[in-house]
Amino acid sequence: MIIVIYLHNKKIKTKNISNSIGKFAAEHLLKTSEYDFNINQVDTYIKTIADDDFLLYKDDPKNYYNDKNKLINEHVQFQQFYIITIKAPIKCVLSLDYTIKYTDNNTSAYIILNPDSHIPYKTYKPKEIYLLLLKELNKIKAQNKILVNIFDNQMKDKLKAFTKHLYQGKFSKKIKIPLFDGIEPEISRNSKLIMHFLKKQNNHQVAEVNEGEVLVEFIKPIFGKNGLNAFGEIITNNYSNNKDDLEADIDSDTIEIIEDEKTKIYKSKIKGYVQFNKKELYIDNKLKISKLSRVQNALAKDEDNNIEVTVSQNDTSIDSIGEGVRLTSESIHINGHIGAKSVLEAVNLKIDGATHTESIQKAKFADINRHKGKLRCHKAKIKLLEGGVIHATHVEVEASLGGTIYAEDVIIGHVKNNLKVYASNSITIRLVSGEDNLFKINYRDIPTLNSKLNFLDKEIEDLKYTLDGALKHTQSQVPILKDKIKKLQNQKYKIVNSAKSAKITITEPLKGLNTITFTLNDKDELTYKTDARLYKPFYIEESEDYIILHPTNKKIPTES
């Protein structure tokens, strides 16, 4: 704040000094900072429990300023209007560097003066500096809507002491001066913030909530006796700055706030996981945690719950999914490793670490960095297969250090040693640099296809039974039933005769001894041991006399 000598001025009456100066500056196409003001007069208005409106109050005839009990009992409220002169500064006399602080419920206000303030006490007498400072503090109070000339005895006493302190050259540290000494309310019940969702978090590390569940409850304080704050407002149960309330941005799309005189309730609008980082509170269907242990595994019990779980553990010596955890969700993303005896089930599963040899994963789509466990899915993408087992429809593996694959179609980048691949349609490999690998075409080795065949047989049997009845009673259903049976029989035929159209392709030359096997529908097998050389794709061809394994000379006679 600056005290100056002025070139021109305008006198106005206002309740909001900052707004009035801003409007005046805008009219003159200047910045607000280019204007200052003086207070010429302060008019105080009061309203009691007996009044309908605020009335001008002078000289304290009812002794409200000295009798605080009377003031509170009659519910006195204050408003002040200021007659000010807005002026453009030309010379700076006093400049204060300060901040303003308030106590609970804004009952009292303080100014913190910084030693960087410009106070020219060496060129003024102590009384002159005191009056300059008093004038300046009242201007600061008025600009911040703090009552002026009321309950300010502490301010004046402290200001006198500060002036003496100033002339002793001791203003080297920040100093606190009271601006307003209000009336503290008597609290019969303190406010309380209950974080209900944290109770769930303590049990399960994460807080999964249902729609309509209470997340946070703020119980407002109850005042046994009212108070008065620095702005002239009565502090009752209806007034509180709610300092103990939740200080965070609330996502209105996922959280509903219900408030009355006594409480403020934060309720979830959707099912999901509570996300709280001290700055924001919201519900998300994406769960992010550092790790999950067996006693914390009760997260989501239904696959179709539209929940995405992300488990992230930066310490590579600790499993993100601990031993024995069972986790089911629509989407699961694990940044770390999977512990022993754990079971993960999801539609979409992504694991950035390694799966334990005694772990199980079930998914529709799986993307795993290092696989050592047992995986069942529709489509699998594996970066490194390290002895793990895969049951899937389609499998893509970048590199293999052993393991077993059961699938209809398999694609592998680099195979080293001790890998067994059982497929029904195709096996495609870029490089086999090791030995003792088995690449076999045989639908019987694939459990999912055996299950599908059993299902097809049962469906065909049921339809044939229904067809027998239709032939006797409902002829119109006969063509429809026959068509359904034919389609199912075609599906079965494609599976049991899949070896006839299957192919094994190894793009680069083999380095050693590996085994290629085709098993026919009648369980006859064509097996070939590879050499260190390049081979064209392996497939079988049936003639009148033989079934031949190309590109080798292996063959077996056809049945007559």
Automatic annotation (TrEMBL):
Any Pfam family hit: FapA_N
InterPro entries: FapA_N
Source species, domain of life: Bacteria
Domain Flagellar Assembly Protein A N-terminal region: 100-278
Protein known as: DUF342 domain-containing protein
Lineage of the organism: Bacteria, Pseudomonadati, Campylobacterota, Epsilonproteobacteria, Campylobacterales
